[in-house]
Structures are given as C-alpha cells and as structure tokens.
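Objective 1.3, modelling of assemblies. Example input:
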Amino acid sequence: MGGDAPKSPFAPKSFPALPAIDGIRIAAAAAGVKYKGRNDVFLAELAPGTQVAGVLTKSKTCSSAVDWCRTVLDKGKARGIIVNSGNSNAFTGKIGEKGTKHMVQAAADALGCKPKQVLVASTGVIGVPLPGDRISAVMPTLIEALGPDNWNDSANAIMTTDTFPKLATATAEIDGKQVKIAGIAKGSGMIAPDMATMLSFVFTDANVPSAILQKILKDGADRSFNSITVDGDTSTSDTLILAATGKAGNKPPSSPSDKRLKGFVAALDAVLTDLATQVVKDGEGASKFITIDVTGAANKKSARRIGLAVANSPLVKTAIAGEDANWGRVVMAVGKSGEPADRDKLSIAMGGVTIANKGEGVLDYDEAPVAEHLKGTEVHIEIDLGLGKGAARVWTCDLTHGYIAINADYRS
Amino acid sequence: MGGDAPKSPFAPKSFPALPAIDGIRIAAAAAGVKYKGRNDVFLAELAPGTQVAGVLTKSKTCSSAVDWCRTVLDKGKARGIIVNSGNSNAFTGKIGEKGTKHMVQAAADALGCKPKQVLVASTGVIGVPLPGDRISAVMPTLIEALGPDNWNDSANAIMTTDTFPKLATATAEIDGKQVKIAGIAKGSGMIAPDMATMLSFVFTDANVPSAILQKILKDGADRSFNSITVDGDTSTSDTLILAATGKAGNKPPSSPSDKRLKGFVAALDAVLTDLATQVVKDGEGASKFITIDVTGAANKKSARRIGLAVANSPLVKTAIAGEDANWGRVVMAVGKSGEPADRDKLSIAMGGVTIANKGEGVLDYDEAPVAEHLKGTEVHIEIDLGLGKGAARVWTCDLTHGYIAINADYRS
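Predicted structure (tokens):
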C-alpha cells in the first residue's frame, strides 16, 4: 500500500544529517515481510549499560510486541531494538506471541544478549501471522551492516503509508558535557491498524538513569506525540522508545527536575516535537498543517483536551480544507470536549485575527487577511477560554478527499 | 445550503400519515429568516395542562434557546413550541438572548400564554443575530394555519441540510385506553453548527406526569438519539421535546416503572428509534447505513461507549465506504474506547459471518457472503467482548467523499 498515495506537500526537500551517537550502531535490510524491493527491517545495537524508557499505546487491544516492550522497559536497560514494517503482528493471538518471541530471539542471538534485553516493534497489516523466519534470515545481513550513520536507511525501513522518512536531531549540555540526540519516526494516519502505526526511536549518548529518563520521556511525549492527531484513531502498536548510552560521560542527574537537565529536556522536546509534527505533515490526505493554541483553560490538561477535541472534529478539519473561517465549528468542538468552558468568555482567532470575542462573532472583522491565511498551507487557530491559566499547543491536519481516497477507495 | 447536496439514497419513497393528537395544533410558515421560498418557522399549540419533558445538548457552549428550554422544562408544563430554521442564534451573546426572548414573547402573545410556557429551538447559521422581527411578523399567519394535521409542512419547515423530512408514529394502550404518538425530527450531520443541529418534537395524547415523562424520555433518548452518530460532533442546540396533552384520559401512571406504561414506553422507543435512524440515513454523504451490535461488554454503558467508538472511527467508516471487511480497524476502535476489553476474547462478525474470533482473525472464513453483504446499503457489524452481559445497539453511516464535499467544498 505504501507509495500508492501522492507524496505529502509537506515532504521536506532535504533531510537533516543525523550525528553518530556513541554506543549506538544501526542497520536496515530487506526481508520481504510484505513489501518487495525495499528495506523493511531495522536493527539497533545498544552498548552495554544503555538505559531505556518508553511510552506505549494505551489501547486495550495492543499487540504482543507492545506487551513484550512493557516487560523489557520495567528493567530499564536494553541491548537492542528490532523493528519490522509490512506486518503489525497485531490480533494474531498465540501465533502472534510466538512471532514476537521468534523475532526477539533472533535479534538477541545475533547481538549476543538475552531476549529480555531486546525491544521490538512491528507495523503493517493486522491479523496476519508474522513471517518471523524471513526476519531471522536477514539477521546476518543486519549485523554485517551495523554502523553509526545508517539513519536514512533506518528511517526508510520502518515506513508504511508514510510518504517521506522522518528524522530529527539536537544537542544539549549536561553539566558542561555536550550530549547528542538523534531520532527517527514513522506514522501517517494517527493510525491505520493495517498500515500506519506511529513508531519512534530516539537515541542519545547522555548518561541518565532509566527512571529519570522515563519521567522526562513521558512529559515530552505529552507535549509532542500525545498532542498530535490525524484522525483521532489510536494504534494497537504505537511505540516511542528513548535509549541513552551514557557514553557522553556526564555525571548522572539526581532527579527529573535536576536543573542540570534543563537543556537536555529542551533538546529532547525539540526532537520529539519535530518528529511528531512531521507525522502530522505526512497525515493521510493532509493539505493544511494546523497549529491550535489553547489558552485561558482551567488547567494544562483541560487545555490539551480542548485542543484535541477541536483538532479531531471532522467539521473543523473539513472547514479548514475548504479554507472557510468557520469559527462556529470551533465553538461547537470546544463545547463537546466536556471541559470547563463559558460561552460568553470564549474568544477565537485565525491567522492572528480575532473573529469571535467573548461569546459573540466579531461582525466587522477584517476578512481579507484571514482568507489569505487560510489559503496558505500552515493554519494557526487560537482559542482563549478566558477562565484560567491552562495552556497547550496541539497539531493536526485537514480532512480532505485524499483521506477518503487512501482509506476507502484503495482496498487492503 | 439546504438542497445543494444530492438526496440521500435512503430518502423514503413515501411518508407515514401522522394522526391528529388531541390537544395539539401545529402550523408552518415562511418567515424568510434565511431561506427563500420555503417554510422556516414551526409553531405548536399545546392544550392547557400539557406535560412536557426534554433532553437537551450537553454542550458547554449551548445556545440561548437551550438555556431557555431548561427553565421551562423545570416547571414540567408548556403551552407552545416555536422553532425556526436558517439561523441557530448560537454564539450571538446578549443579542442572542434578546432574539430568543423576542421569539418566545411573540409566540406567547399569539397563543395567549406566558413566555415561560413556550419552548423554543433555532437551527441554522451560527453567530449571526436572529432576525426576530421576521419571526414575529408571521405569527398571525401561523395562528391562522394552526390545525391538527400539518405534520408534513412542519417536518419540512425545520429542515436545514436534511435531504428529506423525518416523521414517525405509533400507538399503544395505557390501562385499556388507546394513546397515540406522533413525532418529527431534523438532522443530517450529527451536527454542523452552521446548519445541521438535531431537533425532534414528539407529541402524545397520553396522560403522564412530567417527572415520569422526563425519566421515560431520557431512557428512550439513550437508546435512540444518543445511540446514533454521523461524525461524532455535538451540536450547541440539540433539542428533543416530548409533549403529553393527557387528552386520552388514561389514569396517570404512578412511577416510570409502572407496568401499565410498558406498551407506551415501547411505542415511544419505536418512534424515537425510527426518527433517530432516519437522521443517520440522511447523514451527510451517507452511502451505507451501519448497525453495530455490541454484546458481552462489562455493562450496558460500556457496550454503548464501545459501539460509539467504532461508529465514530473515521477508519472504520471509510473501510465500510470502501466495502472492505477490515475488522482490524474495528479491533483498533474497540481498543481506543478505553472500556474494558480483552484482545484474546474479542470476536467480530460482519453480515452474520464471524471474521475474527477470540483474538485471532478467522483465516479461512467464507469471504463471498461478507463481500456481498458489504456491497449492500445496510451493513451489520457484531462485536462480542466475551466479558460480561452488557449489550447495546448503535447506528452510524459511512464516511465518503460526499461528506467532504458537503463540509469542505461548499462554503458557508
């Protein structure tokens, strides 16, 4: 299915050059899980002592790979990550569990570690048994190819309906030591369980204990991957992993709020947000990238929920696709969020122009700049609740004929 | 906007003949609120002593008409209902409140009752002040036209993006006395705040005190209007009113669970379900009518939430539009509902054929009858959670290019 849809208008002209991360070697290979003539397996070797953290789907029907990751993450350390595209191995029952174990065992054997030290993710068609032997068959090729610089190959190998690979990098200082962060991601629908799960793998040479890493990653995910939506659907396989080798040699921080971590947290946020917004920009059928800023909400959580209610509203998304400044649909979406809101305190701006203020439409607002703004590919909606200090930013894309074409006209 | 979209393939060839309800007189008139050359105001005169109940939108940004209805319903009695289409009078601030009061006062003066005895609803464009004088100007015409049989005119007058009027009727016995029920509804998106709110007005000659009426109506709404969805968006103006004149002369029931009410509750359910499914069948862009039966859930509430999560999933709705038996998307939607579910106990059937069973796809299921079923216009999805005894039925429609065309390609 991947490759059938036209390339996103937001596909970058060039890709960032990701740095080598001391302690990380990566590789991609073509196992023919489903796709022909392209890489579909990604292997990462993590140096001994690498601390890991993860944020996994909350779906009650998650895949066996997600179940496996949970037990590895509980230990806080790992030696490898193995990922395939083309088959999500989700809803495959006992056979699926066997497939996951087979894949993990093959990677562990190749890397010379224990299966419980290997994180795993699968993305692609649902309900079809994973051809695990094809993945184990390419292990020698992967081990041979392991190197510090194979970022592009790796980002391409994990793609499904994505129309471009997603890479991001940043640096920071912890206690005077420079640390590097490099990450890749895939995702195109927020989810399409037979093809478009969101996966992201982020690597750093920072020395951060896993418990602290976990807290930082969870908070960062809330501000990035948990603040985006394409269609409001949630994958059975969503997986975000952060691996920290410690090779930068910084003194480990004492807590998640340790001041020396401030720069690292900001750099990690930058990488996660960069990757997350790339996923939205590759959203199925997206023609507009929409940033929604919510302020004045009862609290931060409420602000994010209101932002996501607006971002998920089919009527708001189709209005933006139609370049229609239909603030009435924004009001409706705020109202249905179930969060505290007062109709007579609510204000809405598009492209910086206030078009509804304190419960009433601004009848004589200047329409020309708003119309011009909506004709562009990046749309900004600001919602002020006028209630408290809660603020959040979320991102989404518009809902177009392209989404219907990808998800209804094509058959799986 | 109404009339621009092609007529729903589910538009009925003929309409039921609704009976006169003793104590109810109705009329429609053309006030030119927004539409030209069609009726856009509906007036109902309720005999003295008529008991009323209502279910109103839970939106936090509801219209002033909804606020007004709340205070009338608190008293349990009313003498009139005044409704306009073409302007929802929502998000119009203090001017909006004035518009509502003007409309209610005009109807009260015409009917010879107090404003607090008049229920009101407005549907149409949002954020534009209501031209209340146009509505008061047609009051003499409405009073003149009041009669027991104007059901078709009335159902047409409240339409916005609807492509057909919605009418339903049933009879029952209470304590040996025959009682009649007649209802009309409008709605085409679950909501499009500038045009497609859901409104329904149901009338009966049964003698039922308002407190009991309220409980029966709330329960009935949960099984009907609260069990349908087109796009998951919620109107700022959704209004369901039940008016009972008492003219049938039955002895009033003593409680909502009074056994003598059993037939009446079933007949009311039939009318509400008939009207609610007509709204789905007129859903924007609908080409398939989808019935989702959830069984084996932890409880009834959980079953309904799971059903609605599936019904609201853009990926499920586009799969059905594409006639694709993509049960993986159903699994995904069950998983994201947040309700208790066990991947390994879940079973899914389409068109009566089990295609996923106890956590695994049925690899050799008979595809031909399922493909044939999906080619039809009425699709049946059954989901068994295998956990408890909770069951619910919900209805939705597919998500097609037609929905995008109505909501993005057309401008308001």
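Confidence is low (pLDDT under 50) at residues 190-195 of chain B.
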